[in-house]
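Quick note —
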Amino acid sequence: MISSTDLKSHHISILHYWNKGVRSARAIYHKTNIPLRTIYYNINKLKQTNSLKHRGGNGRPRALCKIEKNAIAQYIRRNNEISINEIKEKLSAAYQSSVSASTIRRYLLECGYRNVLPKSTHMLTSEHKQRRIEWAQQHQNNDFTHTIFTDETSFQLFRNTVRRWTKCPNNELKRILKNRQKVHVWGAISARGVLTCHTFRCNLNGSYYVHILENYLLPAAKQEFRQNWCLQQDNDPKHTSNIAKQFINNKIPRLLKWPSNSPDVNPIENLWSIVKRKVEKRKPKNIDELELFLCEEFKNVDVNIVVKIVMSMKKRCLSLIESKGERIKY
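Predicted structure written out below.
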């Protein structure tokens, strides 16, 4: 069977000579070596329609009619967790339709739908949303150039998030240990770039958090800003413990009040995903390499990237207000 590429090439050649005034099928055959049968067919088509474009209406009719398509769209709008088989059963009950699950799936893909697992996120109560709005309204005109944004996260050895291109998905394997080790990291950034970070393997408590602030945050902050800076931290119990509160009151110039359940507002969250991907691409073989690569990649993040995400704070505040306190996409 002739390929679509060859067919298109034949059309172009035949049309070229036809437009030059060559009307003989054999003359075109001697110039192109296109099969005579193909030339005769296309010349007849040119005589009838003056075009070689495909005529619609040929072939097997669509399996889904307009009513069924509208019904599928309605099912998805009402419940976007509905399964393909459930849609099939509804169509069968409502319209005596015998359409297959694969046809429904193909139609949804053609419409731009993708079946995805939603990302997990903390639930926001009405009170949370209201406080997020109030916070954004209060701080939307702030100058964040002297604010130090901080956060902790964990990095697991042998993570499996780097995608690969392959023609055989079932053959793509990544061997991992059953009990994977992990490293915790605390980091600080500002509108001047990355400030400092600290990795640790123990569980974080109030005392150790004070140790991080005293030995890592204060030296870096004083070197960069002297005493003219403000600390951002979330409302984790370790951060609000009595020992941490006492230290912050005595040693930190200013503290930025932060809305609860609002990691989406903190620009450093964007940095963690960048660092994690870079670390994983270096394929650390043990926990020591993981810790080393983590510190290196964090400190080597392009200053322009850090400045950009920190200076997005005004837009984040506006997005919070516009979304009425809902999660924002940053």
